[in-house]
Every structure is written in C-alpha cells, then in structure tokens.
C-alpha cells in the first residue's frame, strides 16, 4: 500500500542533523514505494534541500521565515500544520529529539491523531506498519500498529540506519509560503557552552563516567579517550549528583537516552535507571573494579580493573590504530 510520508528535517548551525536522514529512511519504509516528502523549516535553509534528496527524499518542501530561525513550538507548529494541510500525508515522522519530543504531541493533538513515540525499529507486513518501542525503562519492548488515521511516529536517533548519499538523485524542491502569526515566545539569545564537542544524543561513541571517576579531574582520561575515538562524554547521575560534571551529560531514565555503536562505561555500577538510557547501545564495554558490578550483566566486554589504569592504556592502544 503506497503512502505519502512527511518527514521533519532538523537543522543546527546551518547543517542537517543526522536524525533528518534517519527519518527519511523510516519514511521510505513506511511509504512502501509511495512518496517521502522532507519538510525543511528555518531561515536561509533552502540550500540544504538537495542533500535531503540525495539521502532519499523524493521531494522537499521548505518554509522560510525569520520567525523560524530558531525553534519555537508556536512557530514550528504553524509551519508544519500548514505543510500537512497542503500535502495531506498518510504518515508523519519526526526524530525523538528534544525538538521532536516537544513538537510532536502538539501537532498530534491539533490533528486529533495518535502518536507512537520513541520507535527503535519499523517493519512493514501485510499492509501494516509495525513500530517497536521500548517500555518500562527499556526492560521490555512493545510492538504497535496504527489502526486508524495518520501514521504518526517519532524515531529514536541512531536506531534506523540512514540511506547512503546518492549524488545522482534528483527531486522536486518547492517552497510553501506560510504566514507565521505572532509568536507567544521568542528566543532572545542562545548561550553556548564553551566547548561543544560531539552531540551526546547522536554520538557513535560514548565514554561515560560514574561516581568511580571520583572528581571533575577524574573525567580527564575519559576525555582523552573520547578525543581519540571521536566520541562524546556522558555520565551517570551518580557522577552528576557528586558535582563531577554537568547534568546535561546525564544518561538514563531521567537523563538522555543514547544508542551509540560503542558505549564505554567507566566506574558506573549499572543501576537500572542508568541502564534505561544506554542498554540499547550496539557494543557495551564496562570498566569497573568490582567484578560483581551489575553493569557487567549488560556488557559485551567487561574489564575488571581500575579505570585510571585501564582508560589510559586503551587510549594509547587506539592512538596506534
Ligand atoms: P555508584 O553506584 O556509586 O557506582 C560507582 C561504581 O564505580 C562502583 O561500581 C565501583 O565499583 C566503581 N568504581 C569505583 N572506583 C573505581 C575505579 N577506580 N575504577 C573502576 N571502577 C571504580 N542514574 C543514572 O545514571 N541516570 C539516571 O537517569 C538516573 N535516574 C534516576 C531516577 C530515579 C527516580 C532514581 C531513584 C535514581 C536514578 N538514578 C539515575 C540513580 C541510580 O539509581 C544510581 O544511584 C546511579 O546510577 C549510580 O551512579 P554510579 O553508577 O556512577 O555510582
């Protein structure tokens, strides 16, 4: 059953975020040979349209407006609803990102539609689109189908592989003029952290520290390993609560959910609330001096030892590659 699927693209610093390409790949599956329309919102973003086509979108619809230069739920919902009205899609996919988590329920409510959030896999069988999503802090997975109305879902970053870039692809790029009414909130200023580094929620490699790092300085060897592997630094709540790092690095039930290719847990005991944020990582390496630590139950590779000895050894070995 061919469907038209609308996918929301996300832009940061004039670059498309990887989740935009993953949303296209998800849209392709759901469309079953129909059409994938990427929606691109912002100011001076049209030049990014061709990349969306090269990554598998059949068409791109842009809405350009100064009021869309930064995300606001008001502005984005007006623009997205206008595109939905003009395109009348059978499916809609957003990333399960900070933006997607904020915007999708608002759009679903306006459309009087259901919403399947945080999907980690999609299969299509017998005309049904089956979404897999984690429940009970990732201790179990459920499969869901939409039985009526628009198939609207958000996808967890790093779970649905994007399509390879194909520079020979072509597709229609059009713009929709939408009158964005007065916004009830505006972004006055964005204060950036001094060092941006790799975005934790999209990182392919995460080096996470727990209370075992013992201090702010204890993160230094982890940062060196992250630099060599091109990874991002994460942390347990234990490390955040102890003041060793910022809460923005917290991974887990009440922190960020990450699914990198490689997760290296250093001095983290493996509490269930931490596992909720990282247990779906593709390869998990645990370094802990306690052989009984429960992190070893989810680890693919376990190293029993002192992280301050093991991490520098790993960094040196990876440097040689
Ligand atoms: P600890 O449990 O103290 O573990 C430290 C580990 O370091 C130990 O296993 C120790 O053997 C090891 N270690 C010590 N020194 C070394 C060394 N030199 N070398 C190697 N290993 C060493 N936690 C989260 O992480 N994320 C969440 O989102 C989260 N949400 C929560 C929500 C609720 C409602 C509650 C109640 C709790 C939540 N927690 C969360 C807290 C969670 O229960 C744990 O307390 C926390 O994860 C423990 O952090 P930790 O593993 O760093 O510390």
UniProtKB/TrEMBL annotation:
- Entry superkingdom: Bacteria
InterPro entries hit by this protein:
DHS-like_NAD/FAD-binding_dom, ETF_a/b_N, ETF_a/FixB, ETF_alpha_N, ETF_asu_C, ETF_asu_C_CS, Rossmann-like_a/b/a_fold
The record's listing under CDD domains reads:
ETF_alpha
| Keyword Flavoprotein listed | yes
Kindly name one Pfam family recorded for this protein.
ETF
Q: Which family does it belong to?
A: Belongs to the ETF alpha-subunit/FixB family.
**Which named protein is this?**
Electron transfer flavoprotein subunit alpha/FixB family protein
């Amino acid at each position: 059953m061919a469907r038209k699927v609308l996918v929301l693209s996300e832009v940061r610093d004039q670059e498309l975020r990887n989740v935009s390409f993953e949303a296209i790949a998800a849209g392709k599956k759901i469309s079953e040979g129909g059409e994938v329309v990427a929606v691109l919102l912002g100011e001076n973003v049209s030049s990014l349209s061709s990349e969306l086509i090269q990554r598998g979108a059949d068409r791109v619809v842009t809405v350009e407006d100064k009021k869309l230069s930064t995300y606001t739920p008001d502005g984005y919902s007006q623009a997205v609803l206008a595109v939905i009205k003009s395109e009348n899609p059978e499916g809609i996919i957003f990333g399960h990102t900070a933006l997607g988590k904020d915007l999708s329920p608002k759009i679903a409510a306006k459309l009087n539609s259901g919403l399947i959030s945080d999907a980690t896999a999609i299969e299509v069988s017998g005309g049904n689109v089956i979404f897999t999503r984690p429940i009970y802090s990732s201790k179990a997975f459920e499969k869901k189908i939409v039985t009526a109305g628009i198939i609207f879902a958000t996808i967890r970053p790093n779970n649905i592989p994007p399509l390879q870039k194909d520079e020979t692809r072509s597709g229609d790029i059009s713009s929709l003029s939408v009158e964005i009414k007065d916004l009830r909130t505006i972004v006055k200023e964005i204060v950036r952290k001094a060092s941006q580094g790799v975005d934790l929620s999209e990182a392919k490699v995460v080096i996470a520290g727990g209370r075992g790092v013992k201090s702010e300085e204890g993160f230094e060897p982890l940062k060196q390993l992250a630099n060599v592997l091109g990874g991002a630094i994460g942390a347990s709540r234990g490390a955040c609560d102890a003041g060793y790092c910022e809460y923005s690095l917290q991974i887990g039930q009440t922190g960020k959910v990450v699914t990198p290719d490689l997760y290296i847990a250093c001095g983290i005991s493996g509490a269930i609330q931490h596992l909720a944020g990282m247990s779906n990582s593709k390869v998990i390496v645990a370094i802990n001096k306690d052989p009984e630590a429960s992190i070893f139950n989810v680890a693919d590779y376990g190293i029993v030892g002192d992280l301050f000895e093991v991490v520098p050894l790993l960094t040196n070995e990876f440097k040689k590659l």
